[in-house]
UniProtKB/TrEMBL annotation:
It is an enzyme of class 3 (hydrolase). Keywords: Cell wall biogenesis/degradation, Hydrolase, Membrane, Transmembrane, Transmembrane helix. It catalyses: Hydrolyzes the link between N-acetylmuramoyl residues and L-amino acid residues in certain cell-wall glycopeptides. This is N-acetylmuramoyl-L-alanine amidase. Its EC number is 3.5.1.28.
């Protein structure tokens, strides 16, 4: 009788353990599906926002087009705008005007091929150097189908200050709407060549994801409904 009771008790323990394991598996599977559903829902939400809204009003842009020359403004037409490439200047403390003037000076110095469609300064000022329908020398293999944005930095960390960051969000949001791009069409120079540019967004992947989320949020909050 005791052996039978012990046997029944053992069976009950084993059965309870199996049931607990099954319940744990069910909970884990449900949790994973919930996380995946949230990610999918978020993705659809971002796509829906960009499909339904756009930034109509131009940012405050100081247009100072570079002189036409082979080193910084070759006046080659873009095939099509398929993306936006974010860069940083890598020279802490320099201004948007200084970087624009450096690009323009390449016509005389001929020391390298370099330019950008836009440069954003430390006070949030935006200077346009190249028309958006022309190619800039900024993003290597993606020069022919992207718009380049250079951002000034205050120090060696490469982190944009608040003024620069806010203007970058605004300019990127406007360009997305102008060319009907998706948020995944916004990339870093790093994503093209592996170059550590823009440094802070390469060193801090979370900051890069937050930037793209901020762009979508800006469009959602300030955008006009597409007709």
């Amino acid at each position: 009788m005791r052996r039978k009771r012990r046997s029944d008790h053992s069976i009950w323990i084993v059965g309870s353990l199996i049931l607990a394991i099954i319940l744990l598996i069910i909970i884990i599977v449900a949790f994973v599906r919930h996380i995946q559903a949230r990610k999918t829902g978020s993705m659809h939400s971002e796509e829906q926002i960009l499909d339904e809204k756009y930034i109509e009003e131009w940012p405050d842009i100081d247009v100072q087009l570079l002189d036409v020359n082979e080193y910084s403004r070759p006046q080659i037409a873009l095939d099509k705008v398929n993306g936006i490439v974010i860069h940083y200047t890598a020279n802490p403390g320099s201004t948007a005007q200084q970087n624009r003037d450096y690009f323009n000076g390449l016509a005389q110095s001929g020391e390298t091929y370099a330019s950008s469609h836009f440069v954003i300064g430390l006070e949030g000022e935006i200077i346009q150097c190249i028309p958006c329908d022309e190619m800039a020398y900024a993003s290597n293999d993606r020069n022919e189908d992207t718009i380049a944005i250079e951002c000034c930095i205050p120090d060696e960390t490469g982190k944009f200050n608040g003024e620069t960051y806010d203007s970058l969000v605004e300019l990127t949001a406007w360009l997305i709407g102008r060319y009907h791009l998706g948020i995944d069409d916004v990339i870093r120079h790093y994503d093209v060549t592996g170059k550590i540019c823009p440094k802070y967004f390469v060193d801090h992947e979370d900051a890069w994801k937050r930037f793209k989320a901020d762009v979508v949020a800006y469009i959602d909050e300030n955008g006009e409904e597409r007709k």
